[in-house]
Amino acid sequence: MRSDPFQPLDDTARALAHELLAGAEYAALAVLQPGTSLPSATRIALATDTDNQPITLISTLAEHTRALQANPACALLIGEPGEKGDPLTHPRLTLHCTANLIARDSAEHTTLRTRYLSLRPKAKLYIDFADFGFVRFITTDGLLNGGFGKAWRLSAADL
């Protein structure tokens, strides 16, 4: 009996991971509640920067932002169930990350603002609110599940 459920990584798996990340408009963000060891999850809007690193625009009023400020270790779950069939048969990607909160007065913020609006034009309604800022997720590794019996470990370099 095979004890390791992960398959050897190949170009097809890498392509699926890249496709999931590039096409994601939303992700589930998992954080640790400040001062506790209790996990918390929320849905966030997602995009990528020009290096295909995941980014988001979030409010400093949000509890998950406070959690990232206290402990930047987090995880993203990317991939939506299809319209039909068992949701567990649809591919999904978990990324283990460190959140990098971007200062609003930085050149990096300006660059991310331009990129984000090119991908998410409706964000123009709130992108300049004083409480909104960007987070770049620095990926350390990932887990790709392509459906039942199809799982791969990915390094940061694979992503």
Write structural notes for this entry.
This protein has helices at 11-23, 63-70, 107-119; strands at 26-32, 39-45, 47-48, 54-59, 73-78, 92-101, 132-147, 150-155. With 159 residues, the protein is α+β, with helices and mostly antiparallel strands. The longest helix has 13 residues, at 11-23. The radius of gyration is 16 Å and the shape is globular.
Summarize the structure.
The chain is an alpha+beta fold and 159 residues long. Helices cover 21% and strands 38% of the residues. It has 3 helices and 8 strands.
Q: Main attributes?
A:
alpha+beta; 159 residues; 8 strands; 3 helices
Most strands sheet = 8 strands, antiparallel
Q: Name the shape in a single word.
A: globular
Pattern of helices and strands: HEEEEHEEHEE
> Over the alpha carbons, how many angstroms does the gyration radius reach?
16 Å
DSSP, total strands: 8
Please, how many helices?
A: 3
What percent of the residues sit in helical stretches (DSSP H or I)?
Answer: 10-25%
- Beta-strand share of residues: 35-45%
Would you tell me the overall average pLDDT?
93
Cα distance, first to last residue? 30 Å
Secondary-structure content class = alpha+beta
Which spans of ≥5 residues are poorly predicted at pLDDT below 50?
A: none
